[in-house]
## 1
Amino acid sequence: MSFEFIENGTVTTPEGFLAAGVTAGFKRSGAPDFAMVVSEVPAEFAGVFTSCTFAAAPVQLCKKRVLESDFLRAVVINSGNANACTGEQGMASAVKSCEIAAQALNIPAESVAVASTGRIGVQMNMALIEKGVALALPALSRNGGALAAEAIMTTDTVPKAAAVKLQFGDKTVSIGAMVKGAGMIDPNLKVPHATMISVITTDAALSKAQLQKMLAVNADCSYNRITVDGDMSTNDTVLLLANGCSGVKIAPDSAEEAAFAEALLAVMQNLAKRMVLDGEGSTKFVEIKVINARSAEDARKAAEAVGNSLLCKTAWFGNDPNWGRVVAALGYSGAQFDPDKCDIYFGNIPVVKNGGDAGTPESDLRATVKEREFTITCDFNDGDAEYWVWSSDISYEYVKINADYHT
Amino acid sequence: MSFEFIENGTVTTPEGFLAAGVTAGFKRSGAPDFAMVVSEVPAEFAGVFTSCTFAAAPVQLCKKRVLESDFLRAVVINSGNANACTGEQGMASAVKSCEIAAQALNIPAESVAVASTGRIGVQMNMALIEKGVALALPALSRNGGALAAEAIMTTDTVPKAAAVKLQFGDKTVSIGAMVKGAGMIDPNLKVPHATMISVITTDAALSKAQLQKMLAVNADCSYNRITVDGDMSTNDTVLLLANGCSGVKIAPDSAEEAAFAEALLAVMQNLAKRMVLDGEGSTKFVEIKVINARSAEDARKAAEAVGNSLLCKTAWFGNDPNWGRVVAALGYSGAQFDPDKCDIYFGNIPVVKNGGDAGTPESDLRATVKEREFTITCDFNDGDAEYWVWSSDISYEYVKINADYHT
């Protein structure tokens, strides 16, 4: 039951899913900005969302769907307008967006979920939703996943989709996913954590309870582990749809369920890593591992402090093996540990031994931080808990993108 | 008993203080890098320090002085080497630095405090301390404050010193101060908070208990309110020395003490503001005020989230009145408030009303964020607590400075 990645896999790789990506006119650039993902049959589903107090109207509506709807048939997504901080009118617009899509697809409005990303504080232009649905409807296809992934991008430089397949006896189960998100990404969140929208599809059959548990656990080990700039969005949405079209039913607490969960995690980690690599202006992928900590919470605080440290991130951009900044971040993280026991490694090279300089020549360290990807391991030698995060550097380009971005 | 600022005031403005700033050779650039501040008579003193787990050796030694020494006669400061993460040898170096200065000045070693700033993880070159003391000793003067302020700079672009005087009947009391710090500055700290070293002098007579209380309270309303990049250092040190040379004794809980505290706060706020204005690559000074919050803690979380938000900071750099990013930061801050009651102002201009767009034309908002200095007020309309922080923008220059800095 081991899984394998499918080349050019998308949300339409699993059986019974159709998708489309079209230009409705939300983006001034004329780039695709409206996506639909449709299941040919009712799909069980689960969702995790931003914990931001100003959760956008579409997020509030999706939460309602998770609580009240028995199944989903479609997800509509627009980029270019977040429909956040838009009050009652914004909520009415989110509801109306679902109704427009439901009418076109001849399905119940309660079986449609909606996600939006883009500028905050601007009311939705409903004519553009009408136009998006009208254009997407005839374009829906079994090959539409790639276009859908493109249509949900904002500051992303590349579309991000993936799929895996698992063999269960003579039957094949697929899991497909797409994600948008490249900035405003932070792990400091309970389920979930990022300016990101992700739709995950599978043709296996699972219950809502199974899906919800699996999604929350896996988000915590993938999308929740990435940090680009420490900010979090009003609109983060992750939806997982299971339509059963493969004919494979996954029983709770079975070996099959464990195999499925592992494959799902692989897809989500694949996309999480690509979000970091596509972080706004990012030139580095840095894994921060804290090991042998007193508690998982100490390990988490320490790893996130390093992963979010602007001084570390700018040092990485400058190929500077400045471990003093790592030490400073660990020190102010709030994690409990004994600084005199702390060892730090860049890759496999010891940098700090017992809280002081390990004596490695700077040229050796510089070779490591010049890599596109490297790992920083902080060994507290003080327990057995661990945590990791994925981070990126902060470049001139990051500042430029975010100083200039107005959608 | 109102105070007034003294033009070109420094730590040597108060009676009985001498200072010097010289080039000992810690900095490769050849710029001044060693300072001494000396009181002609024993001075009562107090200190607040970094809460970083990896507190540098000089910080640990200063804390010991505060606990164990009855008075200070001198403070020695070097820039170019932080003497942090240097283990037992580092502590021995800090002790030895005090001894070298004490011998030269013919005073007890326990009456000398030491502060260091610069590269982490490098052992001190004690020959340079010897040289610094030898050069500084003959240079000590009543006009040396300005040179001392220059010698403690690292990435600072300008030296930062100030002084005020207060009239008590026919006697004048002065308070002088200097500070270094322009990056790695964050308010998320208990007493204190920043990569900064500050020495404050006064010729009034106060007890250690008075000084310690006043310093902690005032640091919390000045140095603790500034945020440049959310990082904190291993070496933050604030020392306050009172030598009584004015002949004015300030009684505890008196009107005179209140007036003195107010003047001290003015000096510390003046320097705090100048640290933000001198923030690495900063082009803006932004005051974030959260008012009418449910609790001071809610107000603090909200103000710090906005002040530390990279997305807000890059928007300010870009003169972009993007209030969506302010809203997002408030939303993920962890502060408890009702988003539907939240109003936001840029300067005096309403931007958000009841959690949604206030309808002000973007051109009006843009005029405000184009200013060198402006205030963002977040009114939660949900209580009577408030908090403010001072922040700056993040520019290309910030990234450049921190990607390239190796001391």
Note: The longest helix of chain B spans residues 255-277.
## 2
Amino acid sequence: MEFMTGVKKKDDVSVKVLLELEEGSFVKVQGAVHSIRDMGEVAFIVLRKSEGLVQCVYEEGKAAFPLKDLKEESAVEVMGIVKKEERAPGGVEVCISEIRVLSEPTEPMPLAVNKWKMNTSLEAMLNMRPIALRNVRERAKFKIQEAVVRAFRDFLHSQGFTEIHTPKIGAKGAEGGANIFKLDYFHRPAVLAQSPQFYKQMMVGVFDRVFEVGPVFRAEKHNTKRHLNEYTSLDFEMGYIDDYTDIMSMETGFLQYLMELLKKEYQKELNILNVQLPKTDQIPSVPFAKAKELVAEKYDRKIRNPFDLEPEEEVLIGRYFKEEYDADFVFITEYPSKKRPFYALDDPKDPRYTLSFDLLFHGLEITTGGQRIHDYRMLSEKIAARGMTEEGMEQYLSAFKHGMPPHGGLGIGLERLTMKLIGEDNVRETTLFPRDLTRLEP
Amino acid sequence: MEFMTGVKKKDDVSVKVLLELEEGSFVKVQGAVHSIRDMGEVAFIVLRKSEGLVQCVYEEGKAAFPLKDLKEESAVEVMGIVKKEERAPGGVEVCISEIRVLSEPTEPMPLAVNKWKMNTSLEAMLNMRPIALRNVRERAKFKIQEAVVRAFRDFLHSQGFTEIHTPKIGAKGAEGGANIFKLDYFHRPAVLAQSPQFYKQMMVGVFDRVFEVGPVFRAEKHNTKRHLNEYTSLDFEMGYIDDYTDIMSMETGFLQYLMELLKKEYQKELNILNVQLPKTDQIPSVPFAKAKELVAEKYDRKIRNPFDLEPEEEVLIGRYFKEEYDADFVFITEYPSKKRPFYALDDPKDPRYTLSFDLLFHGLEITTGGQRIHDYRMLSEKIAARGMTEEGMEQYLSAFKHGMPPHGGLGIGLERLTMKLIGEDNVRETTLFPRDLTRLEP
């Protein structure tokens, strides 16, 4: 009988180990042939590994492999000797003694993924996504995204949150409205979740604090740089709050944790993408009405609708707080009740406004959150006052009938946060395989 | 201007801190009133917190709050004095001086969630899921599930895997076939992803090793204890493998890591659920055909179909390896090619079989995995040989045309693994909000 006993030791060396080896060491390095630069007597063969590039030097007669047979994007195993070389990435190169080809492409590359910056439109890159992402700068964006998700989970775990997984197919949407994808579920009408809102709230009654990282679906007919029809939402919900500033404080804590993680473990990617990390030590918080006033005054704008915030106003608020407070983020609080879903808690002092907030990052909304109604009677009254029905929400409402602590939470758009972090302006840049009005593939 | 500066300090004490405090300390404890036992002169008020239960003692005249006004499932803040008491959970109780009610239920509980075991059918518990999960044993199952996901991510991260997020709406399913949920995507036909198979393979060309934790959707008309129509899949895919045993070794490493994490951080939940952790130090591996033979011989069964494994055979294989090797897990390898999707790599020595495997846990399949075809020509030929078309798979195939390393991977059903870990026999027990043929709510 054969037995599996755990992870196998591999003799392929990682980039990290390679850089620490002594000159003269014999190594095996596996990777994709990222580029071949044939200089006549010698050739530079650059291998692409998950963690970075490795320069290998091929000298005629020294390597037991004819150079002309080697193709870019082949998967290979290079055997050779470590040599210090200042001009190589990381100051180390491998002098090739042998190359073993593991796999070969059948067609030449349609994109120059081995260039530092691909001279290609976003549209073309999205059309050839599986290939385009092999570019070192392109893939670095998604390592930054990985860090965002890791930070979100690790930080919330340290704060006593429990991770949950809630269904994406359901009988009714959390926010209602028309922007819902519909499907047939064994001859019953069903919808795709616009958010885990109802579920995460119900689970506050079970675990006090919960979070979820998962896809959400919005059938919005927006075709902008900021909108996707499917995106990854970072959601949390916490009970026993004093007020909605507890939520904002928790988000600030997450952002601080994220910046520390990026500095500590993602410096390489920050350098590749030339990222300046934003300031998170103190994030200003300003009420909605006040923010509109400040911007109207400073930039000489008329307030057209006191209960709505236009995208240009968001941009100006971002600019205002950058100029006045050198702030990259700003919390806008107390949104008008009309603009928030029924479950948002109204301000008892002025029920035209809610105890809720958005977080802007350089003028773009990346988070919506706030305190929720926890009292069943209040919730029921608000549903009635809005002319809505409780039908289909019985389970959600049962959690409130049977007691729920004061609570609140938020949702963060992963792709938007990543986009702003790396200074991009189209959310498709930071989505592996975006879904929008025209794009259902790849 | 107000500023958010990070997580606020709360004066609510956690169970962990409470147990470490000196007798006589004054504390504030927030939680839900899990149960009230009125003994006349004194009453025991048990608070339910995320981490566990806290016994509080109410004495007539000592607490500034009339006991009769307190309801079970109210959210409260108890102020009082810490006292050592052997019979209380954790050996500590709180002598109440004051109770502040934060929120009250409007209806009495329909389920005795404060009993150790609820005397209720699974069906009833699923119908009242948001309430039923407040039971301490019920929610413990999902802490174990949290551990599974944490272990999967943390272990794979330590092994150089990159986390990815791939779309759940697409133009075509990865495995094809009829078991796909269909939806209208802005007047285009679309489907829900049955698995991230194509995407994770394409991303091996970018990151070498990737993983994803996310929902998958199967429109299967099975109505069994083992099937769900939406579940959470733990997927990974790794490049530069020598053969498919690299995948099995990696999974064994994950399981070993998981058991260590459970022992270290989830002992409380293991005790609540009375879990005996399975053995993972060495997991036997046996070819499909051999497994059928062993079972036929030992349990005197006829082999009816040499190319299919019946559920009863899986159960017997589980039993065989428990009896003969004291093994909780067993890898069944070299599945018949007919039973595997087109992208599975056939055994060059006998193309009727594939270089693939399932992992059984106490006789139930919890993982399917294997080595994939990495050569474009071979893949193209197999598609043709199966009478399939390349239409709709252009992007997937482009990754192979442009070079892919030898690779393989697997998918683990989160709910099934959790179910087997805690010794349950219905996958709905370990799904927060299951979706099956009849259940679309809550």
Note: DSSP finds twelve helices and 19 strands in chain A.
## 3
Amino acid sequence: MTQFAAMSREELAACKAQLEKDYAAFKAKNLSLNMARGKPSTEQLNLSTPLLSILSDPAECIAEDGTDCRNYGVVDGLPEAKRLMAAMLDDDPDNVVVGGNSSLTMMHDALAWCIDYGTGGCEPWLTLDTVKWLCPCPGYDRHFRITETFGMELIPVPQTEDGPDMDVVERLAANDASVKGIWCVPKYANPTGCTYSDETVRRLASMPCAASDFRIFWDNAYSIHHLFDEASQQDHLLDIGVACKEAGNPQRYFKFASTSKVTLPGAGIAAFAASPANVAEFKKHLGVTTVGPDKLNQLRHVRFLKDAEGLAAHMRKHAAILRPKFALVEQKLSDGLRDVGGCAWSNPRGGYFVSFDAPNGCATRIVELARQAGVVMTGAGATWPYGRDPHDSNIRIAPTLPPLEELGEALDVFVCCVKLAYAEKLLG
Amino acid sequence: MTQFAAMSREELAACKAQLEKDYAAFKAKNLSLNMARGKPSTEQLNLSTPLLSILSDPAECIAEDGTDCRNYGVVDGLPEAKRLMAAMLDDDPDNVVVGGNSSLTMMHDALAWCIDYGTGGCEPWLTLDTVKWLCPCPGYDRHFRITETFGMELIPVPQTEDGPDMDVVERLAANDASVKGIWCVPKYANPTGCTYSDETVRRLASMPCAASDFRIFWDNAYSIHHLFDEASQQDHLLDIGVACKEAGNPQRYFKFASTSKVTLPGAGIAAFAASPANVAEFKKHLGVTTVGPDKLNQLRHVRFLKDAEGLAAHMRKHAAILRPKFALVEQKLSDGLRDVGGCAWSNPRGGYFVSFDAPNGCATRIVELARQAGVVMTGAGATWPYGRDPHDSNIRIAPTLPPLEELGEALDVFVCCVKLAYAEKLLG
């Protein structure tokens, strides 16, 4: 098949006419499919059924240090929960704070505290005229929305296969003291699936920053979310904490993780890790806002997942469910679009997303076409700050929620929409 | 017995010598007792044991609208959880947001949003040079600490038997636009146990405020926490929402409640209620900070407590455990201090505390004496803003946690410490 861009107008018009027929046929099916959000499927949720009733007797509610987890207190989390989450965060349990069900809330709060009270002895960011924040793009819309809501100026940074373009990051961080930090999803990134190279991590840790309180918000949401069981097929991430310490910038990073996509997204546990000084700061602020997290849910997780090996074993069960879905995305996109040209997409080894780059100017139209045919996608532009993709190109595909058969159908619709939008664009 | 203040120096010195012997005897026992924090006892926690395993199967995790509570979403809480918490909050479910395990966090966040973004279309409070906050005293230390941490100027307002001294509140609110709000624990208040009179509620709702965005933070933490089962022995509180609406100030109040002292303090659910406009504002901000609360825990509470009648029946079981403890406090204080003079204390019909007013200048010494004899009390001054009781008089007694026998022993020590400190003071 000739690539669309190489076709004559007549060829392309004929092709478009056929696509319109195909599209009309999809529409006639009155589909209701969803590839919008990175939600685990029911099958995945069922893996954690034992978690529900793992504590059923008061005697089971006592933590290893004798704390009755039903009562008030323990603002920074149970010792055994710190150990469990330290395994996810690749850190020392002493440097970990375990919280409630949302790592996003911990990120929001950590940022709010920098703004209201300052961090590392520096002035509160609310006293500054401008605070700028680096946003590797495409990235995670909820990250961007937090910093946008706080009134920061969001600066897009190109995302490469090795993480953010470090030449750009280094230049911005070195020369502008109002650049206070960066969002990072360093492993199996949302949405590109890339994992930061060791060099990227080391450059982030060691780069000169005009702001001495520059902070890396290291949302390691997919740290153990491999699609393959063999170590050789898994990505490896250098620990930002170690890299920062080695570089003489031990206060530079805040790490976050949660079990949202390990156990149950509505009822997981979240954690924060940082240097001892930053943890002390975090705990001081946290102690004002709460008497303590839900320790019973922390204990449930410890009893269910146990340790690093327990986590890995559990994640292999997720991988077995997710592998065919990601394989199907790759197959459908490859079969449907290889010969069309103009498109690119990721084929990640972990995480929750496939990042799709449509021909420039087509993303909004594709998502709209899909919507009208009953397939909900993440909004075009969502992967960029302020929801504005300058190329109108990137679309995030979330293949985890639908059953395999529905996913295949949704992808067929999607491929048809991509081709139709591209043909429309070329024909002007 | 002659009251201490009426004794001759000789009589008092002899009395003090005996008290010192009694105190030394208590010390020799090497006690380790705690009347510091308002925690439910183990016996109370056990009332909620069915809650632990009430959801054990995936099919039980589905909310009435079909939502799988194990997955992401539903930022403002389940419909059935709103109904349950509306019963506690004396409000319409539509005006309720159900959150995580901490109403304190919801109060903190609501305040933070007023500061960062403003409320009711008014300017953000962070743009103001000074924000003042009214603090009925004695009051709740964690409330005061939130507003103190935000850098507000805390203004103590005398607490009467009918709630805050409304002459003072009205004068401050009417004449100073930097007075932005007030902390209220309107029923079985922490620590005095008073319940606001209908007149107090109506005056709060209707008083002229120089600040159009004046907000009443209505922490109805003990709304259903009666000590007695008969309606005639229970306090009744006028609803602040109705009163504000009637007064033409429908935006003035934010209500809060939680099940922390209904089910399990570490693993309860919290809720917020306000006008539709304020709820819309709250939800908008909340949607930035989280993907949603722990809906499984909400569902557990609905299945366990069911409705208003279920709540009331459950609270009667708490009351049966707590009644003898509060009776013992009243008896021990009355027997031990009636004839000493100079002291006053509350005898509440609900809630978690007895408020004790020692002779001026004695509270710090009493708490220190008790501590040295192995009885931990809430720190003197804790019931005042900045931890500074100008009279050094108020002590909060929390009788709920210790078993009855330990409580009796702790009160014996306390009474001895009160008398000794008072005698020391009078002897100069």
Note: The mean pLDDT of chain A is 97.
